[in-house]
Structures are given as C-alpha cells and as structure tokens.
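Dear support,

I submitted the protein below through the web form. The confirmation email said the job was done, but the results page showed an empty box. After a refresh the structure appeared. I'm attaching both so you can tell me whether what I see now is the final result or a partial one.
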Amino acid sequence: MLEEFAELVTDGELDDAGDLLAQLVARSPNHVDVIGAELSLAAALKDAAGTLHAGQRYLARRPDDSELTFSLVGMALSEAQTLLATQLAQEAVRRWPDHPQAQKTRQLLALLAEGAAASRRDFLAAHPTLDAAAADAVQSCQEQYALLVATERVAEATALCERTLDRYPGLATVTNNLSSCHWQAGRFEDAWATCSRVLAADPDNTHALAKHGNRQPSPGAVGRAAGVGAGAGGRGPRPDGSGQRTGDGRPAGHRHGPHVAARRMDRRHVPQAGSLLGAGPVRPAVTRGRIAAGARDAGN
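What the results page shows now:
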C-alpha cells in the first residue's frame, strides 16, 4: 500500500492518496513509514502545520535526518513557531555543525534570541504583575495552541490552556483560546461561560465579545464540532495525537476535513527565515524510491 501511496503522491492524485493514507493510519498509526507518508502528503498539500506535526513525529523515530531537521526550522518560522524553530535550530547546529545551512542557522538563532527578548518585554509591559517565567510560559502556550488547533488536536489544546490558566489565572488571550476549544468540541455553554469570564474583567475585549454574541451555534457548527470531537466512528483522538481523524475518517490535515481556525500569531518579532536559510519545500519522506524494507509491517 505504501508503494501505491507514493505513486499517487508523485502523480499528484492527492485526494486518492489521502483516502489510502486513512487506511494506513488506521492499521499502523505509529509505524515510521506511515508517519513518513503523513509527512509526504502534508508537504504535497503545502500544509505547514501538518508538515510540522508529522515532521516532529518522524524525527522522533528517525533523528538522524539532517535535511528534514534543517527544513523544519524554516517551516516552523513560517507558522510563527519561534520556540519550536529555536529548538530545532539548536539541535541542528549541535549535531551537524558543518552542514551547509549551519552557519546561517546560527545567525538565525541570534535573531530568534533578540525576538524572544522583545516579545518578553512587550508581554511584561502589558502584564506588570507577572514575571519573565510567566511571559515564556504564555508564549509557549500560544504557539503550541496554534499548532494544535491547526492540526485538529482540540483535546490537547484544551488541556494546554487549562494548565496554563491554572498557573496564571485570568489571562484573557489564553482564556479566549480555551473558549474556542470548547466551541470546537461542541461544548457551547462552556464556551459562552468562558468568554463571559473575560468580559467580566474586560468588557471591551473584541474576541470575547464576538463569541459571547453568538451563544446559539448554527447546525453546521454543531456538525463540525461533532466531527472534530468524535473522530472516525465516534472515537476520540489518541492521547499522543497520532492517527487523528476528521469527521469523515480522513487523517487530520486532509483537505476534506473540517476547518479549525487558529488565530494568527503575532509576527512582529519573528525573523524571516527565507533570507537566511532559503528554506525550500520539505523533502518527501515516502517516495517510490524510499519505501523501507519494513513497509510490509504497515500493510504493504
């Protein structure tokens, strides 16, 4: 099946490739070649968030892939994932100091450090009662939240927001994100109550006002929430997010899945990676010539 999948991707038959990938994921969601197939399809669809998610899972099993590691640095920055970009860049230059991209990646790390300091200053100016540790924790929450909802891992995004609010109660941005998670999961009364908490402290908060004025969801919103919350056949997502399904049983990120909108991250302090790394497309992990010998374990 992996050979057939690779041919479909190569031939640009991405819809059929997505159907076949759903079968592969159902059989072996954590097999490295199946994760590689998810990475290949996400890259072919130009789905940056899906590419990042699959790329991280692939690297966890194939950590010696230097080209993918360097490529994901630029991909992370394209999604304003500065903390993930920093983590990947640090790992890349540590392990492959003589790589052709290593020197430019070191320059990028310096820019990322400057941007992180500027973001921290902005946060502390807006929240004078909090400290630098809180600023870093909230930035981490915001970036992880954006990637989680973009890849339809709403349960994980909900838990992330709740953990952050347990440590730093009352943060409007994180509370609004939690309200969005409740909405996407079909918990509409919880969503309304959560944004009400924001409005109690800040009656002019535009994000909370927009949610608060839409207490009764449309039938379409209910259907989309059911698809995201239940997954294929009524199953929820796996705890690690692997094998995530949309409402029609296709892998998350497939173009027929329900859309879960993530609020765009603040890009004022995000370096432009293209001028430094010249980041091109992520190399497919599964092609006709790169089917692993173990593919038969994944249904080949």
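Response: this is the final, complete result; the empty box was a page-load delay. The chain is about 60% helix and 0% strand.
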